[in-house]
Amino acid sequence: MMLSREHRLLFLHTSRTGGTTIRELLRMALPDTEERVGQHRSALEARDELGVFFDESFRFAFVRNPWGRLWSWFAMSRNLIQNEERDFDAFLRDWVPDEGELILPNQCEALSDQDGRLLVHEVGRFERYEDEVRRIFKVAGVSLGEELQQLNAGGYVGGYAQYYSVEGRERVAAAYRADREFFDYEFEEV
User: Fold this and answer.
1) What residues contact 140, with CB distance under 8 A and at least 6 apart?
2) CA nearest 42: which of 24, 53, 32, 54?
3) Which residue segments constitute the domains of the chain, with CATH numbers given?
4) Which SS3 state, helix, strand or coil, does residue 173 take?
5) How many helices (H) and strands (E) does the chain have?
6) pLDDT at 154 over 60
7) pLDDT tens, residue by residue, 112-128
8) Inter-residue contact 176 to 106 (CB < 8 Å)
9) What is the mean pLDDT of residues 87-111?
10) DSSP secondary structure letter of residue 149
């Protein structure tokens, strides 16, 4: 999570949603921006740690279609360990178990309280990244330059659908039902 005490702003970074770019944009625009330990902390954890600052701050986050998010996570991990042979379905079986806790949690749970109420003021959509960054920064009163260069991009050409088997598609649909329903995401064939 990133915060600016002077500007009363808090960015909650859900993984694989363009947060690295947002972190750098905030650092350039707001020199007092600091990164807290635990970059992918949940909103509840941030509220517990920050107390009154949390309540008085403008809070925002980004979310991503779960199928695109899982493909991006796979592509990143494959690049990190330089394993071009790793099978996506095997990765999904490891990271999206049939039972038990998900390694990559539902985004709605990370951004909500125990009653399912969002704890952020604005939620940007990764699928409309540049427009959403500009919109949210404007609402927050943060200046942006003309050009927005996305950092740490996942590295796939075209849509994520081409990488999914029927098994993988159904596995993600079941495990990320909460995100699909909360943020109205569907598998996009394009």
Assistant:
1) 7, 9, 58, 60, 122
2) 54
3) 2-183 (3.40.50.300)
4) helix
5) 9, 5
6) no
7) 999 999 999 999 999 99
8) yes
9) 90
10) P
The residue written with tokens 């260069």 in the block is 149
Edge-to-edge strands, sheet with 2-4: 34-35, 2-4, 9-12, 58-63, 122-125
Q: What average pLDDT is seen over the chain? A: 89
Q: How many Å apart are CA 66 and CA 139, to the nearest integer?
A: 26
User: What angle separates helix 66-80 from helix 166-175, to the nearest 10 degrees?
Assistant: 110
Q: What's the pLDDT at 100?
A: 82
Q: Tell me the C-alpha to C-alpha distance, in Å, between residue 47 and each of 77, 140, 145.
A: 30, 19, 30
Confidence class of residue 151 from pLDDT cuts 50, 70 and 90? low
Residues 6+ apart with CB under 8 A from 87: none
38-85: pLDDT as tens digits: 778 899 999 999 999 999 999 999 999 999 999 999 988 876 666 566
Which two tokens mark 165? 């088997």
**Residues ≥6 apart with Cβ < 8 Å to 89:** 165, 167, 168
Give pTM, 2 decimals: 0.90
The backbone region for 100, taken as left when phi is positive above 0, alpha when psi lies in -120 to 50, beta otherwise, is: left
